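Quarterly update, task 2.4: zinc ion-bound model.
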Amino acid sequence: MHLDEMLEFNKLFVENKEYEAYKTDKYPNKRMVVFTCMESRLVELLHRALNIQNGDVKMVKNAGAIIRKPFDSIMKSILVAIYSLKAEEVIVIGHHDCGMSQVDIDALTENMTNRGIDQETIDTLKHSGIDFHDEFHGFETVEESVSQSVDIIRNHPLLPKDIKVHGLVIDPGTGKVDIVTRDK
Ligand SMILES: [Zn+2]
């Protein structure tokens, strides 16, 4: 199990006081929130490519960097970062070759039943109003998706007027970013 390797490593990390290189406080030095995809290729690359150091930003992630509802957990995290943690700027960063582009809902559902989820459970959820298409569908183009997420943040009734919200797309191979939309 990889967990065992991690725990082993962790013991030494703490013993050797390797944490000392990362000391900082809870307020983001760059006064920023970065909202991006859970993509594993970006775990380190995104930080390196944008020169983000430990303590620089609040980082929020989900599958696809998607916000579609104004009171989902992502939007709440962004609001907390602004009101409690002094963030003044929000950057949404989607990426090319994202797993959430063109999700096949039928294949996803089939994988669930193959992995032992009863069809009855799925039907019950559907009847109680959980629309699998609404819940799991991704996007056609990443630029469009980033724009939609940015629009929801910009137009949020609880967002202070002076907060800047930008949208970028990053290449998970090279780390190159392109601007989709930016506030001045
Ligand atoms: Zn992704």
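Highlight for this quarter: Residues 37, 39, 64, 95, 98-100 surround zinc ion (CB under 6 Å).
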